[in-house]
Amino acid sequence: MLRTSLLAAARSPWARNVVERNPLSQPVVNRFVAGALTPDAVSATRSLVESGRAVTIDYLGEDTTEVADAKHTVEAYSSLLSALSEQGLAAGADVSVKLSAVGQALPGDGHKIALDNARLIAEAASAVGATLTLDMEDHTTTDSTLEILSELRVDFPWVGAVLQAYLYRTEADARDLASAGSRVRLCKGAYREPDSVAYQDKSEVDRNYVRVLRILMQGDGYPMVASHDPRIIAIAGELGAGRDFEYQMLYGIRPGEQETIARRGDKMRVYVPYGVQWYGYFMRRLAERPANLAFFLRALATR
Ligand code: FAD
User: Fold this and answer.
1) Closest to 16 measured CA to CA, from 251, 282, 299, 274
2) How close is the Cα of 162 to the center of ligand 1, in Å?
3) Which atom of ligand 1 is nearest to the CA of 162?
4) A Pfam family name for this chain (predicted)?
5) Residues 303, 299: Cα–Cα separation, whole Å
6) Around Cβ 17, how many Cβ atoms within 10 Å?
7) Do residues 178 and 215 make contact, with C-beta atoms less than 8 angstroms apart?
8) Burial level of 2, CB count in 10 A (0-12/13-18/19+)?
């Protein structure tokens, strides 16, 4: 119920206005977001890399309704990749892109605009030795996102995809994607979805996660296990023993566990969001965990 309300608020312009304009939000947002500007993302990357963790960086923004905003997002990724390269941090880095931030949601030829823009980002990543992963948004975008993935992979076979364990379709998508060279991030899923397309019960989502993870680990692709859930992490360790895969977690969430995983020699990649459009991302983090919401409310109350 709380999750549903917070996810509804994540898409409400009214709630956005209230939360964004409240100056007291910022200290809590800073726990989950690396900063507003490119140098903030570069500096977060440097400290993560120095502690043995890799990064995937997200320039925050989604549901773009203007072609110019989509273009701005492409330029932001391009500057970021150049800055990482200048600082010797680009090789091995990944950028995470939401296709709705580069035009997918535009009426008419949104799909084509998003493909062209994602291609520009893939070219910029390729030029500095970085990779690109296409984030997955709500289920109305899944087909378009997987089509764009397959078109990009013709020229950039290392472009990665995200699958969401809460969707019924994901088991079949995982079988399609578990092939050589295919980078697949598996997460539980962060959007509000109807029961016509998605499991609603947390234990069913978790069971499907493990089913899909097994498919990915038995396939020939490169699984990326995106979860903070200790049970999932333990199961991934068992299923992935002796094969190449990586763990992924979000910036600011379970940093101690991130370091433990990296220290024991397993690959750990941290998803680093930055930029001023933090609202949707932030609300999804609150929806995931009541303790995050309590932390936010406590911070507001004590200031
Ligand atoms: P949950 O069921 O939320 O949590 C399980 C357990 O993890 C908790 O019970 C607790 O033990 C532990 N835990 C969780 N949070 C905390 C915390 N703050 N502190 C301490 N312990 C905690 N979703 C999408 O829909 N599309 C995407 O493209 C996408 N990309 C992602 C990329 C990465 C790298 C990650 C990590 C997540 C991504 N997500 C994405 C979000 C994902 O779908 C989930 O909403 C989110 O990760 C929460 O699920 P969970 O697996 O961590 O488990």
Assistant:
1) 282
2) 13
3) 28
4) Pro_dh
5) 6
6) 11
7) yes
8) exposed
Smallest CA separation from ligand 1 atom 30, residue = 135
For CA atoms 272, 278, 283, 284, give the dihedral sign. Answer: negative
Domains with residue ranges and CATH for the chain = 34-277 (3.20.20.220)
DSSP assignment, residue 197?
T
Tell me the whole-structure pTM to 2 decimals. Answer: 0.94
Contact partners, residue 182, CB within 8 Å, separation at least 6: 153, 160, 161, 219, 220, 221, 222
Closest by Cα among 271, 267, 244, 99 to 181: 244
| Rg of the Cα atoms in the chain | 18
Closest ligand 1 atom to Cα of 226: 36
Label residues 168-204 b or e (16+ Cβ within 10 Å = b). Answer: eebeebbeebbeeebbbbbbbbbbbbeeeebbeeeee
> Could you give the CA distance from residue 290 to residue 85 in angstroms, rounded to a whole number?
38
Sign of the C-alpha dihedral, residues 264, 132, 102, 76? Answer: positive
105-159 tens-digit pLDDT: 999 999 999 999 999 999 999 999 999 999 999 999 999 999 999 999 999 999 9
| β-pair type (131-134, 94-97) | parallel
Distance in Å, CA 271 to ligand 1 centroid:
11
